[in-house]
Write the structure tokens for this entry.
Amino acid sequence: MIKFINITKSYPPNIFALRNVSFHIKPGEFVSIVGQSGAGKTTILRLIIAEEKPTKGKVIIGGWDIRDAKQNEIPLLRRQIGVIFQDFKLLSKKTVYENIEFSLQVIGTPFKKIPGIVSQALKIVGLENKARNFPPQLSAGEAQRAAIARAMVYRPKILLADEPTGNLDPINTREVIELLLRINELGITTVLVTHNREIVNLIKKRVITLDQGMIIGDQQEKGRYVI
Ligand SMILES: Nc1ncnc2c1ncn2[C@@H]1O[C@H](COP(=O)(O)OP(=O)(O)O)[C@@H](O)[C@H]1O
Ligand SMILES: [Mg+2]
């Protein structure tokens, strides 16, 4: 589903965000990517959504070498991939409902179909009763769940989460992680970037450890946070 083959990503003059990184994430896998700040975690996600191009190597998504993707195919690729962030990136002047509705409008979803899709997404994350709230009227945990609902409406094949619990207390952290695991059980390949050691050890799934742009560990199952 996601294949990195000898990926190096450098920025001038001599910053190496990733050095010769290779891995293969199979359909339906749940993978945590861990490592200290600056290790290259976000760079991996940005390469997956083709926001950055590798300096060397190949990124293959769903069997597709994304170097071959034309500019107008990139939005199609991105629609297969839901992304959530530490700071939620909700539009604060729109309600939860409108935030999700907006994502559907930009891809030209027929307007009659929108309410049903939005309700279903809110149901998955348990936020039906907050649909009319604006983001500032949500707790951080609810805001992240709203962002997850929004990421789900395109029915992505892949969900990428970049430090999604970075702003959450331990209870909300658990809730969000449990939600990601449930989403993964629906068959969505899930990549979680985090430096929360306890969470990674609790998840007990594959863990890829990065240090200074290099993979220093790839534990296939029952992975533990090692650095
Ligand atoms: N656009 C950029 N220009 C220059 N350096 C960058 C850029 N993006 C990331 N880097 C550098 O690449 C390294 C890895 O960054 P990043 O992937 O964001 O790390 P992480 O998400 O693990 O904290 C860091 O040293 C960072 O400063
Ligand atoms: Mg990062």
In short: The pocket of magnesium ion (ligand 2) is lined by residues 41-42, 162 (CB under 6 Å). The chain has one domain: 29-55+76-219. Residues 29-55+76-219 form a domain with the Rossmann fold fold (CATH 3.40.50.300).
